[in-house]
């Protein structure tokens, strides 16, 4: 059975992923230009977001182009945008992790923010256990606090009580 070109395009998962990357990259690049870019020797706050946004646009174009040129052979399952049985719990945990980092980090500091983010995100794995998630969160928190607080001297309190810093 022959399908129309529009129907074939609607089933191209890579095309949509590349298109989404282009849109996100454009947003980041345009937003980054509102800050001072500086030079390569003295980078300003807008340099990195703009450069990464442009790279994301280029990568998105390459992925979308590969999605358009790839053959449509293979099962219908390979080309679906969403899987037949989406892992909603995993998606929820992975999206909730950064939100939890913002809330806990702002109110209680880097240690609770990092631990909460990693712990909740790790629970999104269908094979994850509470114990394994706890150990992973403890190790990442220890490493992250050492790296960001002591080595890179990120101005975020390690532990604090109350709103904002």
Shape: flat
Distance between the termini: 62 Å
Number of strands: 0
Q: In what range is the share of β-strand residues?
A: under 5%
Give the tally of structural domains.
2
One letter per element, helices H and strands E, the order comes to HHHHHHH
Largest sheet: none
Low-confidence spans: none
The tally of helices reads 7
How does the helix and strand content classify structurally?
mainly alpha
Q: Give average pLDDT, whole number.
A: 83
Helix content: 55-70%
Give Rg in angstroms.
21 Å
Which helices and strands appear, and what pairs or packs with what?
Blueprint: H1 5-10, H2 13-32, H3 47-69, H4 76-79, H5 88-108, H6 110-122, H7 130-151
Question: Would you write up a description of this structure?
Answer:
The chain has helices at 5-10, 13-32, 47-69, 76-79, 88-108, 110-122, 130-151. The protein is mostly helical and 165 residues long. It folds into two domains: 5-79; 88-151, no CATH class. The N and C termini lie far apart (62 Å).
The gist of it:
With 165 residues, this protein is mainly α. The protein has 7 helices and no strands. The chain folds into 2 domains: 5-79; 88-151, no CATH class.
């Amino acid at each position: 059975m022959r399908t129309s070109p529009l129907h074939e395009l609607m089933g191209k998962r890579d095309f949509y992923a590349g298109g989404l990357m282009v849109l996100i990259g454009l947003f980041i690049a345009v937003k980054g230009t509102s800050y001072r870019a500086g030079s390569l020797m003295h980078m300003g706050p807008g340099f990195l977001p703009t450069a990464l946004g442009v790279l994301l646009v280029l990568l998105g174009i390459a992925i979308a182009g590969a999605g358009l040129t790839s053959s449509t052979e293979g099962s219908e399952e390979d080309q679906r945008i969403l899987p037949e049985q989406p892992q909603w719990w995993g998606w929820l945990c992975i999206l909730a992790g950064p939100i939890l980092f913002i809330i806990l980090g702002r109110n209680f500091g880097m240690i609770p923010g990092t631990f909460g983010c990693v712990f909740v995100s790790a629970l999104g794995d269908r094979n994850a256990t509470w114990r394994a998630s706890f150990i992973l969160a403890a190790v990442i928190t220890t490493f992250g606090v050492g790296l960001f607080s002591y080595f890179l001297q990120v101005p975020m309190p390690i532990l604090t009580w109350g709103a904002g810093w």
